[in-house]
Amino acid sequence: MLLRRTGLLAMGLATGLTMLVACNSTPSAETEAAASAAPPVEEDAAQFAYDSKIKVGRLIAETRCSTCHAIGTTGNSPHQDAKPFRQLSENYPVRNLEEALAEGIVVGHPDMPMFVLSPYEIDALITYLESIQEPHPA
């Protein structure tokens, strides 16, 4: 729903901008450069959706996981047996966590609490996790 609203708003803004540019009989070099450099509306909406998903994923990590795991790109985990999130892809693709999260993850360190996430929350958390992974030596 948010993506549809964002897309419609962006399309309306793009249409309005196009009409303004068309009304100007002698467009300035700045106007022409801005119009040609602007990415298509679909790319803006897709980037907005991706950025929003990462923010939601980080919020989930902060509220549900940060008491044990380091959830950012630096720092140590507060719990000695909890792997920093940025290192999860050392052993397997982070996307492999989807099923475990959907069923109520009970893996990890021995005293990790069980919790269940909605499909959107799972996708958001995994998207966030993928965005912070450290590069691994080949």
Structure description:
The protein is an all-alpha fold. It folds into two domains: 1-38; 41-138, Cytochrome Bc1 Complex, Chain D, domain 2 (Orthogonal Bundle). 54% of the residues lie in helices and 0% in strands. It has five helices and no strands. The protein has helices at 2-23, 29-37, 41-64, 98-103, 119-132. The radius of gyration is 21 Å and the shape is globular. The chain starts with a helix and ends in a 6-residue tail after the last helix. Residues 1-27 have low confidence and may be disordered.
Q: What is the element layout, followed by pairings?
A:
Blueprint: H1 2-23, H2 29-37, H3 41-64, H4 98-103, H5 119-132
Helix pairs in contact: 1-3, 3-5
CATH superfamily name of the largest domain?
Answer: Cytochrome c-like domain
Rg calc: 21 Å
User: If classified by CATH, what would the architecture of the largest domain be?
Assistant: Orthogonal Bundle
Q: Work out the number of β strands.
A: 0
State mean pLDDT (0 to 100 scale): 77
Percent helix: 40-55%
- The CA-CA distance between the termini, in Å, is 41 Å
Instruction: State the CATH class of the largest domain.
Output: Mainly Alpha
Query: How many structural domains can be distinguished in the coordinates?
Result: 2
Write the H/E string, N to C.
Answer: HHHHH
Percent of residues in beta strands?
Answer: under 5%
Structural class: mainly alpha
Shape verdict: globular
Please name the CATH topology of the largest domain. Answer: Cytochrome Bc1 Complex, Chain D, domain 2
Unreliable residue runs:
1-27
The largest sheet is: none
The number of distinct helices, counting runs of at least 4 residues, comes to 5
